Amino acid sequence: MSKASIYSGKKKAGLVILFIGVAILIVGTALIFDSLTFMNNAVEAVATVTDIESESKTFNSHDKNRSRYYHIEFTVDGQLIHTKVRDVDVDGFADVGSVINIHYDSRNPERVRPKAVTSELFFILIGTPVTIVGLVMFLKAVGKEKRAKKLQKNGIHVKGVIVDVYTDTSVSVNGVSPSWAECEVEDPETKAVYKFRSEKVYKELGHLKGREVDICFDPKNPDEYYIDFAALLENRPEQEEDYEAEW
Asked: CA 165 to CA 226: how far, in whole Å?
């Protein structure tokens, strides 16, 4: 098998997605733990909105995110407390003079959270599927690589010919669509002709039509095969960028 196995990129992509998912889960778990700790020391109270301020953040020339901050006041043991909260923490719309329910930290009354744990769950809902996708991608690539190594050791090694190249133009990453090659190989013993399809890669492959490629397969189960497609891709110009993925 070529050192630059075609599954190497898939394993790396899976690990990157897995890392991102786990990172999101860690952040979400930490936020939930912080919220639960806060609620264990929180006291429920009623506060009055005294002022409202708006803040706009522009992410690009078209999208703007407007945040509203509510200045509130409430009484704790006869002392008037002034603080502010974001609009996302308030149920419904509040105006100056509106009364809202809050929870404040008994050790630091200016620390207020009008709502219990809700928005923190967003991280868990996003992080979980991302982690699963990354893990599945990684394990799938590892499994295919192991089967390829087994075929390299126990299968029949032959030279195949790339007879056709296909491109899925309905999918595009950075302007490049996935392509794959169809290969034909003749069993040296039975003279039977088999057709195999390569892994999908984000690269123009038309120039490879007619080229020979190393193939190994199980003659008892031709569906088990490995095309050393990476060996051909290694000969690409250094400045040409290659995107690999399986769909």
From this structure: 17
Among the listed residues 128, 89, 111, 130, the one whose alpha carbon sits nearest the alpha carbon of residue 42 = 111
Q: Which of 247, 197, 244, 246 is nearest to 217 (CA)?
A: 197
pLDDT tens per residue across span 233-247: 665 544 344 434 443
Taking the C-alpha atoms of residue 63 and residue 174, their distance in angstroms, rounded to an integer, is: 23
> Tens of pLDDT along 96-116?
888 888 889 888 898 887 655
Cα distance between residue 101 and residue 91, in whole Å: 9
Measure CA of the first residue to CA of the last residue in the chain; give whole Å. 22
| Token code pair at residue 51 | 């002022």
